[in-house]
Amino acid sequence: MEVSQEVESRIIEMAWEDRTPFEAIQLQYGLNESELIRFMRTRLKKNSFKLWRTRVSGRATKHAKLRSGNVTRGYCPTQYKHR
């Protein structure tokens, strides 16, 4: 997938965020979960990719259908502080 540096950076950022589900990335950038995994594998260093896979594997907040009803937004309130 050929994307600008800015878009690539945003996809990687969203993939690392705990509360951003895979479905949101698919909706915005057209990458389903398996495509996102391939995308991350090619753009991250080997150890970073392993850390990311460990982090997101089995994490309920990364899948919209598995999310608790208590998770009502895609980011935590302290994530985007105005400077």
Write structural notes for this entry.
The chain is mainly α and 83 residues long. Helices cover 51% and strands 0% of the residues. The protein has four helices and no strands. The longest helix is centred in the N-terminal third of the chain and has 12 residues, at 5-16. It starts with a helix and ends in a 27-residue tail after the last helix.
How do the helices and strands line up, and which of them pair or pack?
Blueprint: H1 5-16, H2 22-29, H3 33-43, H4 46-56
Describe this protein with a few key phrases:
83 residues; globular; 4 helices; mainly alpha
The computed structural class is mainly alpha
Number of helices: 4
Report the C-alpha radius of gyration, rounded.
Answer: 13 Å
Q: What level of helicity do the residues show?
A: 40-55%
Residue runs with pLDDT of under 50 for 5 or more positions: none
Classify the beta-strand content into a percent band.
under 5%
What is the CA–CA distance across the termini? 34 Å
What is the residue-averaged pLDDT?
A: 83
Order of helices and strands: HHHH
The coarse overall form would be globular
Tally the beta strands.
0
Major sheet attributes: none
